[in-house]
Amino acid sequence: MHVSTFAAPVTPVRTRFAPSPTGYLHLGGARTALFAWAFARHHGGTFILRIEDTDVERSTPAAVQAILDGMAWLRLDCDEGPYFQMQRMDRYREVIADMLARGLAYRDYMTSAELDALRAEQTARGEKPRYDGRWRPENAAGRTPPADVKPVVRFRNPDTGTVGWDDGVKGRVEFANSELDDLVIARGDGTPTYNFCVVVDDWDMRITHVIRGDDHVNNTPRQINIFRALGLEPPRYAHVPTVLGEDGAKLSKRHGAVSVMDYEAAGYLPDAMVNFLARIGWAHGDDEIFSRDEFVRWFDLSHISPAPSRFSAAKLDWVNQEHMRRLPDAELGRRLVPYLARAGLDAAGGPDAGAVAALLRDRAQTLVAMADAAWYFYQAPVVPADKVAEQVTAANRGALVELHGEFAQLDWAREALAAAMKGAAARHALKVPQIMMPMRLLVTGTLSTPAIDAVLALVGRDETRARLARALGLP
Ligand code: GLU
């Protein structure tokens, strides 16, 4: 466990999730959002959603909606936002103008041909390509800016010393300023660049703790330097490791479902997903199954492993089943209803979904699997004659016909149904399965169901008798 100053009290805590809307909310993004949300909730702070949509080519309203849907499904509710960077352009321009006026930034008139030439020279000398500061005011004195070049604006990065931070996950991270270029903060057309917008946003939104993917570690020293130049204290930073696929490669479409909403469609419970995502790289002792509230109570950054961690589909299934087990029957039934509808079944046209869920809960790892297994409660099966012939023989047909009659008067409950079937077996010198297996087939169309007495109790008297009559060819 690494001890950091990240969690030292800075009140009130304000965190944000800042997705770029270039696709759905994928598992890695959802986990980052979850950690930022949980940190805010744990500290009674504020969680902010910011849509980083400045990449206009790749950002789409559909992707914004997909992110909002994913967060709503996981119940990662934000207290402020969504803010959109594209609506803040005036503010970024204002800060750029202010930085120019204060000498914190300067106009660079280098053409792209000159930049290419510089890079080529540096590479030939075996150096790392970097801007050489030729338009820094002290170097450009006396030179007239070319009229035909639209200058970029560069931040004047410190030349010496180091820039570092106590990362909430990684511990101390430091960069030499000599490694960092004078960052372009506005392009030739005046549009602000990504790293700069993030700084202005985190400043304006008074973010105290930035929790984000570790693909941003290289941006952090640049952002900190801009904060400091502006005379501001930067937020604290925690960079969470990447989520990998089962094979250890970066999670991608190749690994199947990668959008969180695919998991909604596949019948996972949002709280199971939260539990599962939380456990990718974070641990609380040996606890594997926990509620959303427990997670919020327990969450801290010092128990996040700095190493990338793998996704496991089998583990997700298990976590989901455990969460399904912990839901009361009625609640599980309520969750099942939309999945019945998606499976083309009319929940209102059959037994109470809570009772169905009670019966099927041990047999399904997802709500989709449960809805698939529940179809015969809502739809009469069509049993092919050859299948009927395999189960209904001269030996047991008479007993089944008798039961059809007996069922008309029976006290319609599980115990009485079991007793009636056992009684019929005894009278006809049959083994109990010789009654129960055909009963399963004729009433449900399948041989693998929970206890058939319990199934019949739910299917109901009239429907059970109608199905038996049809399959046995009774009037
Ligand atoms: N927009 C960035 C991303 O989607 C996140 C930036 C940040 O959290 O600072 O990766």
Can you walk through the features of this model?
There is one protein chain. With 475 residues, the protein is mainly alpha-helical. Among the domains are: 14-78 and 194-244, HUPs (Rossmann fold), CATH 3.40.50.620; 91-186, Glutamyl-tRNA Synthetase, Domain 3 (Glutamyl-tRNA Synthetase, domain 3); 380-475, Arc Repressor Mutant, subunit A. It is 45% helix and 11% strand. The protein is built from 20 helices and 12 strands. Strands 1-2-3 form a 3-stranded parallel beta sheet, covered by helices on one side. It has a 3-stranded antiparallel beta sheet with strand order 4-5-8. Helix 7 (220-229) links the parallel strand 9 and strand 10 (236-240). It is elongated, with a radius of gyration of 32 Å. The structure holds glutamic acid. Glutamic acid is lined by residues 18-20, 52, 198, 212-213, 216. Glutamic acid binds at residues 18-20, 52, 198, 212-213, 216.
Strand-helix topology:
Elements: E1 14-17, H1 27-42, E2 46-51, H2 61-74, E3 80-84, H3 89-101, E4 105-108, H4 112-124, H5 137-140, E5 152-155, E6 162-167, E7 171-176, E8 184-186, H6 194-204, E9 209-213, H7 220-229, E10 236-240, E11 243-244, H8 260-265, H9 270-278, H10 292-298, E12 309-310, H11 313-326, H12 329-342, H13 353-360, H14 367-373, H15 385-391, H16 394-406, H17 414-427, H18 433-444, H19 452-459, H20 461-472
Parallel strand pairs: 1-2, 2-3, 9-10, 11-12
Antiparallel strand pairs: 4-5, 5-8, 6-7
Bound molecules: glutamic acid (GLU).
